[in-house]
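Q: I'm a student working through a structural biology exercise. My instructor gave each of us a protein and asked us to get a predicted structure, then write a short paragraph describing it. Mine is Transcriptional regulator, AbiEi antitoxin, Type IV TA system. I'm not confident about reading structure output yet, so if you can add a plain explanation after the tokens, that would really help. Here is the sequence I was given:
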Amino acid sequence: MHRRIDPPPELLALAAAQSGVISGDQAVQLGFPLRGVDRLVAQQHWRRLTPGVFSLGPAAPGWHGLAWAGILLGGDRARLGFAAAGHLWGLIEEAPRPLTVLVPTSRRVSRGADWLIRRERDTTRDRRSPGSPPRTTIEDTVVDLCREIEATRVLDLVTRAVQGRSTTARRLLACVERRERVSHRRLLRDVLGDVAVGAQSALELRYLRDVERAHGLPTATRQARARRGGAYRDARYDEYATIVELDGGIHGRARERLRDSRRDNAALLDGEVTLRYGWADVTERSCLVAREVAAVLIARGWNGLPTRCPRCRADLWSW
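A: Happy to help. First, here is the predicted structure for Transcriptional regulator, AbiEi antitoxin, Type IV TA system. I'll explain a few features afterward.
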């Protein structure tokens, strides 16, 4: 009869760091024989997730446990990619299933119900695999996700990546130029160029493209510091003392409304007028917004005239 051996503390600590998941190879390396693993599975203390990978406990693991199981299934240099990496980077809210696991081209791994195994060449992506569990860099993740989304969603994806402060427009653009195959490459270049000049949200990008540029308005200064209080303005037409504030959410709290009023009052004391627009204004009524902004700019000294975009009604520009 074999003497019973319990899992050593080192194994339990490693499993805790891996969201409760361990591989058979890791168990053996830490002094816990496979017969001990089989005993715990047979007694329903542990769960076999796939050949050679186990969960410490009888219940099915959560998403992060499955993520670690995919890494252990993939073996050396395996990492999460595409939507799974996007979820870990905060680019995708819903946890995807199955999880995409990237492995070297030389490795053969059978996919399971919870994992999609994809082989990758060494030269395709950055070799770094940051984070725990390991994943593709945020720049490569953005480029990969562009293969699976429509052009209309690229803008939101890029702004999410930059707003999270895990990357910059410059680093994303460098990745776009380095990769051989990039979906929506031209659009990514344009959007990243706009982000680089200061547009920090999807709404600010839409205003820049669909209101300001589409109608030939002057170029505003993005994220300009207010003259009083140190707040930042979304767009300020310095020469014409005009501010445009953009709000992508719904201001339902009194504190936020009071803060906005104080900013507007401070701007008025400095001789500046503030226009405020929400998501529906910019995305559904961009031509009307352009007309309003143009009217204020003209009244405050702009000598130019706005231009009609292909969506403008003829009567909208009858001054």
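A: Here are two points you could use in your paragraph. The chain has 13 helices and ten strands. The first strand starts at residue 21 and ends at 23. It's a good idea to check both against the output above yourself.
Q: Great, thank you!
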